[in-house]
Backbone:
């Protein structure tokens, strides 16, 4: 037996309601009306207005016949009117649902630009808004997926092209193998490894699969060890690196390894984009939050680029890209790691004067 559509179900339900209402009305009237009619005749006879005793049966039969005819006409007229109104209202109610069906079919075919128009019915209008919100989210996910594939292809192309060029020249005998050449190949291989590792980290972070083990953490020893480690990597003519915070910082509730990963990323970027000047690491308690900042006097970031600085594979202007040897997703990983620990990361910068990346962690 075929299943009825929503429109047919609404149409039939309206007709059933009408038939039940009319049927109840006719049955009650059929039972009570003759009795009430006879009662009214008796009242008139008692008043002495006229006598209908001999014609009572005839009058009652005539009333019943007239009632039956009028009831049949009422049922026919009521059913026709109810059917027309039910048909129009059911089509009006099901129209947005049918539109959603057509739009979902277009979605399945790859067209993500269609949207459901607003409805006069509050419940269906709410459903339309939810559907459009879902459609926008799907469109954003698809857009990010395409951008990710494009960016990933671009990032992989450069080291692969360099490696292929060297290997082809080695195979043709146009160049001879040397330690310098092999170091270049190793460098490009490590770049690919770093890219794959960062992609895995970002994928796990965005999916919530990264293990986060928040514990009471003393920040000062961690900050001091990182500053000492990076200071050893700086050249004499390079920037200076210093730590400015009290030793008695209150403990924070954070994962030590993930917090170190965030700071390593921020310090690495600061060193990469600061040729001279200074890099300062600071920490201070503000309300119930511990704010940690890394400030440099490097190339800076243009104001128009700041909203995108934490997007994956994003780099600012070419002056920054020329300095960069990273994968372009380190800040995206850092942001997600901060968020997974209940914090927030932000950046302020001025082109040519430097940048400040700061984030907070909750106190223990």
Residues:
């Amino acid at each position: 037996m075929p299943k009825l559509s929503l429109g047919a179900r609404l149409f039939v339900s309206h007709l059933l309601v009408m038939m039940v209402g009319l049927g109840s009305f006719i049955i009650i009237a059929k039972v009570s009306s003759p009795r009430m009619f006879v009662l009214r005749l008796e009242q008139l006879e008692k008043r002495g207005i006229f006598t209908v005793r001999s014609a009572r049966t005839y009058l009652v039969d005539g009333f019943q016949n007239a009632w039956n005819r009028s009831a049949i006409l009422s049922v026919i007229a009521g059913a026709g009117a109810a059917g027309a109104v039910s048909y129009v209202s059911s089509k009006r109610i099901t129209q947005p649902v049918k539109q959603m069906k057509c739009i979902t079919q277009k979605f399945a075919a790859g067209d993500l630009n269609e949207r459901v128009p607003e409805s006069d019915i509050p419940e269906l209008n709410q459903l339309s808004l939810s559907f459009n919100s879902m459609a926008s989210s799907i469109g954003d996910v698809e857009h990010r997926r395409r951008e990710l594939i494009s960016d990933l292809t671009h990032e992989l192309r450069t080291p692969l092209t360099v490696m292929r060029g060297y290997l082809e020249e080695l195979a043709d005998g146009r160049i001879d193998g040397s330690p310098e050449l092999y170091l270049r190949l190793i460098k490009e291989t490590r770049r690919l490894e770093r890219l794959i590792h960062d992609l895995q980290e970002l994928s796990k972070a965005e999916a919530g699969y990264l293990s986060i083990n928040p514990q009471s953490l003393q920040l000062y020893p961690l900050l001091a060890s990182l500053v000492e480690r990076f200071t050893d990597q700086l050249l004499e003519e390079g920037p200076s690196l210093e730590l400015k915070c009290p030793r008695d910082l209150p403990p924070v509730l954070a994962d030590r390894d993930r917090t170190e990963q965030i700071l390593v990323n921020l310090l690495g970027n600061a060193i990469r984009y600061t040729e001279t000047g200074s890099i300062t690491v600071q920490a201070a308690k503000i309300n119930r939050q511990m704010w940690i900042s890394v400030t440099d006097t490097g190339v800076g970031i243009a104001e128009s680029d700041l909203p995108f600085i934490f997007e994956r594979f994003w780099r600012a202007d070419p002056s920054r890209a020329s300095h960069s040897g990273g994968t372009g997703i380190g800040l995206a990983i850092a942001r997600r790691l901060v968020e997974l620990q209940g914090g927030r990361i932000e950046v302020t910068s001025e082109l040519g004067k430097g940048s400040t990346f700061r984030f907070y962690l909750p106190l223990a």
